[in-house]
Design brief:
Elements: H1 2-12, E1 15-16, E2 23-24, H2 32-37, H3 63-71, E3 78-84, H4 89-98, H5 102-123, E4 128-131, H6 136-142, H7 146-158, E5 167-169, H8 182-188, E6 193-195, E7 206-214, H9 218-229, E8 234-242
Parallel strand pairs: 3-8, 4-7, 7-8
Antiparallel strand pairs: 1-2, 5-6
Helix pairs in contact: 4-5, 5-7
Length: 245
């Protein structure tokens, strides 16, 4: 019934592809040709999420991540992204975040849901999906949290529970991408995140964090450390796009 209704609405109210602007009948704003031409992430390190030739990865990890894990370990267990943060993603994602282009967000969330459903089928479902939280000042400026918009759609498609009341950002920070050194990024996020005082994670052992773009890894690693300090055993992160090379 739902599929038939969706097909009918798509025929009556066609949309435009967000890349080429061609009129299409689809459940999201992307034609098949443009979807195939997006910069999909293929072989990548499961530690940092960056693209690498498959031949240089050892147990799905690059040399730097293997060294980091051996030296001091990382709170985040795995990192995955759908795309490289390059054209047209570097125009579409800012339009979603800063111009409230919810059609773009819905499209990418739908694509992510398909990937995550397959991933969960192979590796097991997490107990909870969580967004990267926004500070209330940033939320007031923007009017919404783009990560939460993604999480809601993915949760609806995968039937994995989600929550927007577990993680809280209590410190208004500079954008991580604007900071140069790893030390500056760590200092910027010191005591930035806390668990909501009324949240309960008693029955939660594994969590997937979802964001729009992963740039420096500092945010998701910080959140993973916070969750593991409160008893969560496994944390992975997924994003629409991974910046960096």
């Amino acid at each position: 019934m739902y599929a038939a209704l969706t097909q009918f609405l798509n025929q009556v109210f066609p949309t435009c592809c967000m890349v080429c602007n061609r009129t299409i009948a689809s459940s999201y704003s992307l034609c098949q040709e443009c979807e195939q031409q997006l910069p999909w992430m293929e072989a990548h390190c499961h530690g940092c999420g960056l693209a690498f030739p498959e031949a240089v990865l050892v147990n799905n990890r690059c040399g730097q991540c293997l060294s980091d894990y051996a030296d001091r370990g990382h709170a985040l267990d795995r990192c995955h992204s759908l795309f490289h943060y390059s054209s047209p993603l570097n125009n579409l994602i800012p339009a979603f975040k800063f111009q409230a282009r919810f059609d773009i967000g819905h499209c990418f969330a739908s694509l992510m849901a398909v990937k995550l459903a397959a991933h969960f089928h192979q590796h097991g479902r997490p107990d909870l999906l969580l967004p990267v939280p926004l500070h209330y000042r940033r939320y007031r400026e923007r009017g919404f949290n783009q990560s939460w918009e993604l999480v809601k759609t993915v949760s609806r498609h995968t039937a994995v529970p989600c929550s927007n009341t577990v993680l809280l950002k209590q410190k208004h920070t500079a954008a991580q991408s604007d900071l140069g050194s790893a030390r500056e990024r760590r200092r910027n996020l010191t005591n930035a995140f806390v668990l909501h005082p009324n949240c309960s994670l008693e029955s939660v052992t594994t969590v997937t964090i979802i964001d729009d773009v992963i740039t420096t890894m500092s945010t998701v690693n910080n959140l993973a450390g916070l969750l593991k300090a409160h008893g969560i055993q496994g944390v992975e992160a997924w994003s629409i796009a991974r910046a960096g090379t």
